[in-house]
Design a protein that fits this description.
- Among the domains are: 1-27; 58-126, no CATH class.
- Helices cover 56% and strands 0% of the residues.
- It contains five helices and no strands.
- It has helices at 3-57, 68-74, 90-97, 113-118, 132-135.
- Residues 127-137 have low confidence and may be disordered.
- It binds calcium ion (CA) (4 copies).
- Residues 105-107, 109, 111, 113, 116, 123 line the site of one calcium ion.
- Residues 84, 86, 88, 93, 99-101, 103-104, 106, 113 line the site of one calcium ion (CA).
Length: 144
């Protein structure tokens, strides 16, 4: 090989060495940035994962006695025990009083369902003895 050829070869090697060095530093820098981003993100991610895990681990996320699946099917808020804010949680409305979990005043007498129950009144005006709880079980939403 000629002297010129050897010089050329060394030049190539040096360039490659620099390229590798630059690539290495570049990767390192990127990794460092990613690491910081990942750290910042991982807090958010773990928070989100925690929420997701809670939802999936707990099939009754709001502990109102109605499973998340049933709430989705029935149109109630699975993250809110008392979807309509009337003082009775969804489970109480659906399973105990047969009131509408999405209607704060099921019988439309201007008293909230929870208010009526607390005061010993019937939240379903047409149902004086809560019989509909049994007879109308499973037809939730149709007995306003
Ligand atoms: Ca629930
Ligand atoms: Ca309610
Ligand atoms: Ca209600
Ligand atoms: Ca009422």
């Amino acid at each position: 090989m000629s002297k010129k050829g050897i010089t050329f070869l060394i030049a190539i090697i040096v360039i490659i060495a620099f390229a590798i060095g630059a690539w290495y530093l570049g990767v390192f820098e990127v990794e460092e940035i990613n690491f910081e981003e990942t750290t910042a993100d991982s807090d958010k991610v773990s928070e989100r994962e925690k929420q997701v895990a809670e939802i999936f681990d707990d099939d009754d996320f709001d502990d109102d006695g109605i499973t998340n699946t049933d709430e989705e099917a029935g149109g109630t808020d699975k993250t809110k025990a008392d979807s309509d804010g009337d003082g009775l949680n969804d489970g109480e409305e659906l399973q105990m009083y047969n009131t509408d979990p999405m209607e704060p005043d099921t019988d439309g007498d201007s008293y909230l369902d929870g208010e009526e129950v607390r005061n010993g009144h019937d939240p379903l005006a047409t149902d004086k003895d809560f019989v509909t709880k049994e007879t109308e079980a499973g037809v939730f939403g149709t007995d306003r």
